[in-house]
């Protein structure tokens, strides 16, 4: 897409008419921030898919949480032991 000077000027005038002169700096700033975030994400994605790069180390976590099934089974076993047999 090859824009000449006149085309850029017309686009700027339309933007001023649509958004107003007060909002243009805010819009330009938010577009710049969005482009920065997008470029950062693209760079990280390329680094993650690079086959020559060693994989990241996974952090070790503590003991896995016990499931509610374990607690329920232990409670049922204790209840069975407490009840007299017939």
UniProtKB/TrEMBL annotation:
List the molecular function annotations (GO) for this entry: protein transmembrane transporter activity
Q: Which GO terms describe its biological process?
A: protein transport by the Tat complex
Q: Tell me the compartments it is located in.
A: Cell membrane
Bilayer topology annotation: Single-pass membrane protein
What start and end residues bound the annotated signal peptide? none
Main localization is: membrane
Region Disordered: which residues?
44-86
Listed GO CC annotations: TAT protein transport complex
User: Which spans does this entry mark as compositional bias, Basic and acidic residues?
Assistant: 44-53, 73-86
**Similarity remark:** Belongs to the TatA/E family.
Protein name from the UniProt record: Sec-independent protein translocase protein TatA
What species is given as this protein's source?
Flaviflexus salsibiostraticola
């Amino acid at each position: 897409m090859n824009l000449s000077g006149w085309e850029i000027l017309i686009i700027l005038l339309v933007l001023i008419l649509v958004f107003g002169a007060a909002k243009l700096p805010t819009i330009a700033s938010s577009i710049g921030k969005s482009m920065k975030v997008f470029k950062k994400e693209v760079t990280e994605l390329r680094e993650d898919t690079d086959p020559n790069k060693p994989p990241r180390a996974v952090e070790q976590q503590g003991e896995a949480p016990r499931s509610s099934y374990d607690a329920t089974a232990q409670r049922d076993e204790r209840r069975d032991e407490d009840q007299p047999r017939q």
